[in-house]
Structures are given as C-alpha cells and as structure tokens.
C-alpha cells in the first residue's frame, strides 16, 4: 500500500508478505520523494513488494492492492503514461516468479499495510 502527501509529493510505501503455510509475516516500508500522484505511489509500493518477495525467494505470488486502477493496468498490461516505466519494472520482476496474480482487495481488508505506509510517510519529516 502507499500513502501520498500532496504538499511535498512524498510517499510512504509498505508491504506485508505472507508465506503460505506460515503464521509469521514479513513487512517493510520505504519512502519516496518526487512522486507525482497517489497512483504512482501505489505502483512504487508494488515494485518494492515484488523486489522483497524476489529477495525472499518466493515463487508463487498473489499481490493484493486496494487500488483498482493499478490492478487493472497490471493485469491488462496497458500502462498509464505516468506509470509506464514503473509498470515495466513490475512486469520484468513478475517474470522472476513461477506464478503471479494481481488482485483487488477492498481498503478495509488492507488496513495493516495502510497503517504501515502512513507511518512511513509520517516519519519521513520527523
């Protein structure tokens, strides 16, 4: 998930990785500067999640996002102009996995990742 602040075009990105059959999760955050839009922030969060999933040697991925526009773009491979480069990175990373799906989840089911992203953005200026 991502949180975006219009005043300085900063974003907090977060991801939570659940390994199948394990109770523990792996989560992380990053911050990004010069992010043009909330949609771009979400795409950057997806790219970070995939980089960490690849580093964790995960092979089957179901990436869930509460951003319908982004999920639709990733599934159709019709990239909005503002996301073209980031979505190409995501597409290339996707080939690292045995299987990958992109699914939409309602925001109410994404609250843990949302809280992490907002915290990362909050502490960017702290």
From TrEMBL:
RNase H type-1 domain span: 1-120
Top-rank taxon, per record: Eukaryota
A UniProt-annotated Pfam family: RVT_3
Gene Ontology MF annotations: nucleic acid binding; RNA-DNA hybrid ribonuclease activity
Signal peptide from the UniProt entry: none
CDD domains, per the entry: RNase_H_like (cd06222)
InterPro entries: RNase_H-like_dom_plant, RNase_H-like_EbsB-rel, RNaseH-like_sf, RNaseH_domain, RNaseH_sf
Name of the molecule in the record: RNase H type-1 domain-containing protein
């Amino acid at each position: 998930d991502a949180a975006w602040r219009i005043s300085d075009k900063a974003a907090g990105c977060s991801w939570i990785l659940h390994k199948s059959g394990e109770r523990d999760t792996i989560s992380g955050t990053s911050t990004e500067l010069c992010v043009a839009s909330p949609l771009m922030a979400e795409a950057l969060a997806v790219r970070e999640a995939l980089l960490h999933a690849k580093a964790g040697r995960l092979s089957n991925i179901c990436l869930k996002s509460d951003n319908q526009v982004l999920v639709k773009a990733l599934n159709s491979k019709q990239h909005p102009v503002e996301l073209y480069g980031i979505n190409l990175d995501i597409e290339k990373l996707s080939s690292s996995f045995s299987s990958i799906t992109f699914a939409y989840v309602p925001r109410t089911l994404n609250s843990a990742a949302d809280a992490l992203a907002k915290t990362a953005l909050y502490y960017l200026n702290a």
